[in-house]
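dude i think i finally got it to work??
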Amino acid sequence: MSNIGFRVFEDIQRPSTELILGFAGMQAANVGDCMNKMAAIDSSIQKVNKQNLLGSAYTVKVPSGDNLLIFLAIERAQPGDILVIDGEGCMDRALVGEVLSKLAQSKKLGGFLIDGCIRDYEVLSQMDLPIFAKGRTPNGPYRNGPGEINVPVSIGGKIVCPGDIIIGDDDGVIIIKPEEAKELQQKVLELQNREAAILEKIEKGKGLDLNWVYEKLNQEHCEFIKK
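look at this
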């Protein structure tokens, strides 16, 4: 008999701590720009508190409004893992509240990324545990299952696999494949240097070179009209 719907995949390949920390201090926007502006999850999933996400994905797939497998995921995840929870975008019931958040914090997990709702917002909004979620509601979850751990999941329109690197800040969340991380980090560093030089020119009152704007407008046959 098939166990699809009630499975836990225990052996996952996590990126090295060194590889993950290579993104420390990098803005999600800059990382996304270096991924052709195609890597961000949907903006409906927002920061709950002041803490940023940076870590490796430990994925959880649950039925709409049910959090049974989230308890097990918190128990089996390793310190630093980010629980990436595919709750089918359900806005009717909270999947995570104060109890699970404090349990995750006690296990030194890297945070929650939830395509679904939280509750106990007053507490969660003050915690040091990074939490991103789609919304909040006082309605509690069911605890019946099924659910699966460490399978590919859909979060905010993006597929996340176990071991993917997650970056989240005030602008949103970016999903990175570990095999692309090193090259991406170099591109982001180069972009940061270019932007720093641009900002320095602006601060010194030198403005920007907008020749490229005029060139694009000319290509579009833009007409400048004087009254």
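The mean pLDDT is 96.
im so relieved honestly
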